[in-house]
Amino acid sequence: MSTAFLYAAARTPFGRFGGALAGVRPDDLAAGALNGIMARVPGLDPALIGEVVLGNANGAGEDNRNVARMAVLLAGLPVSVPGATVNRLCGSSLDAAMIASRSVECGDAEIVVAGGVESMSRAPWVLPKPSRAYPAGDMTAVSTTLGWRLVNERMPAEWTVSLGECNEQLADRFQIGRERQDEFAARSHQLAHKAWESGFYDDLVVSVPAVELSQDEGIRPGSTAQSLAGLKPSFRKAGTITAGNASPLSDGASALLVGSEAAAGRIGADPLARVAGRGVHALSPQDFGFAPVEAAKKALARAGIGWSDVAAVELNEAFAVQLLACVDAWKVDPDIVNTKGGAIALGHPLGASGARVLATLAYRLRESGDRWGVAAICIGVGQALAVVLENVTSGSESR
User: Fold this and answer.
1) Domains and CATH numbers, the chain
2) 247 vs 42, 214, 300, 322, 350, CA distance in Å?
3) Residue 346 and which of 9, 67, 199, 337 are 20 to 30 A apart at CA?
4) What is the pLDDT of residues 97-155, one digit of tens each?
5) In this structure, what DSSP letter does residue 373 have?
6) Which entry of 189, 193, 281, 348 is annotated as an active-site residue?
7) Is it the case that residue 20 has pLDDT exceeding 90?
8) Is 281 an annotated catalytic residue?
9) Which residues, in sequence order, are bridge partners of residue 252?
10) Mean pLDDT of 211-235
11) Do the beta carbons of residue 251 and residue 147 sit within 8 Å?
């Protein structure tokens, strides 16, 4: 078996729902991320890419018909480069990275591009086909932007409640109050702003042609727990979850270059990190926010390390409450979690977030020189994924 390494990463800025990227098709966003990856490794012959695997959660509009293959063609890569699209909802692009790493490890390919894309602004309304011809009544258009739609009536009602209600239940279960959630959300905005100001994201983010957006659009650096406390609950009249302590609807794309150790010469770059462990976990759909707890434990076991070895954690901030529940269960220092901000501030374009989380982790490890990190993401309908990275850049082994 070979070993899979992360060599490069690129993503677009993440745009707000209806914001600067709303006019850009998702296949064009994905093509931009692919072009960003190729710009990182100008010595790589694109014909050597064995596969492009992209995640996409909706796939009901302009991202239909295998958006990965469409992005390959739109990016100007050779027509000989295959493309496959994977859907594991919010975890889609982290799943794509895991698939890419397995492909490298088993020898099916030496160089794979993974990533994902979502335009939640452009997700269409859909009309179901009628059960019989010529119905006389009205039909309702269903939004494909987020959450359950066209639900099978055989599904138990407790499984199909809204994502927000699922996390209100999590708040009740672990007694995580509104104040703590708002404090964490404010921290996300402040750290994201600080990371942009320090230049951390300069080498990760690529511009979108014809769009004036140089940074993630949703960051509000002036956010405080006090200012967020004024927002009304979104899912329960007396609930704890608001638009301020949950991730927003977003647009964006991300990409990663995964390859074998032997491919370094053809890529023309040294690797950033080794994919050391992977984990997947599933539980009851309404408990999806807590699923990363076991997914990360599995990834750590496969890497042969424990939480005491981990110096950096990137956990997607779908909701502040679910992140806090997971961090509490892991018993890790909150100060090592999402130190460059997270999805509450940066945005959460569903199909792109997993690769964003993994790339941020690799760059954090390179910056700090620490050896081990964990990237994880919760997934609607009761799943989660996690990946352990080992920093292989200079100076990492001593830490």
Assistant:
1) 4-123+248-390 (3.40.47.10)
2) 35, 20, 26, 11, 10
3) 67
4) 999 999 999 999 999 999 999 999 999 999 999 888 999 989 999 999 999 999 999 99
5) E
6) 348
7) yes
8) no
9) 118
10) 97
11) no
For 234-278, what is each residue's pLDDT tens digit?
999 999 999 999 999 999 999 999 999 999 999 999 999 999 999
| Single-letter amino acid code for the residue at 174 | F
What pLDDT sits at residue 252? 98
Q: Which residues pair with 339 in a beta bridge?
A: 341
CA distance 369 to 269: 18
Joined tokens for residue 57: 């959660």
User: Average pLDDT over the chain, rounded to whole?
Assistant: 97
Tell me the CA distances in angstroms from 8 to 31, 35, 206, one per residue in order: 16, 12, 13
Which one from 90, 166, 189, 281 is the annotated catalytic residue? Answer: 90
pTM: predicted TM-score of the whole model, two decimal places: 0.97
Separation between Cα atoms, residue 52 and residue 30, nearest integer Å: 11
Place of tokens 């009249």: 237
Please enumerate in sequence order all residues whose Cβ is within 8 A of that of 156, keeping only pairs 6 or more positions apart, or say none.
none
Q: Is 378 among the catalytic positions? A: yes
Look up residue 317 and give its amino acid.
Answer: E
Burial of 47 (0-12, 13-18, 19+ CB in 10 A): exposed
- Residue of 166, 189, 281, 378 marked catalytic: 378
| DSSP secondary structure of 158-182 | GGSS-HHHHHHHHHHHHT--HHHHH
Which three-class secondary structure state does DSSP give residue 276? strand
Dihedral, 277, 390, 113, 358 alpha carbons, nearest 10? 80
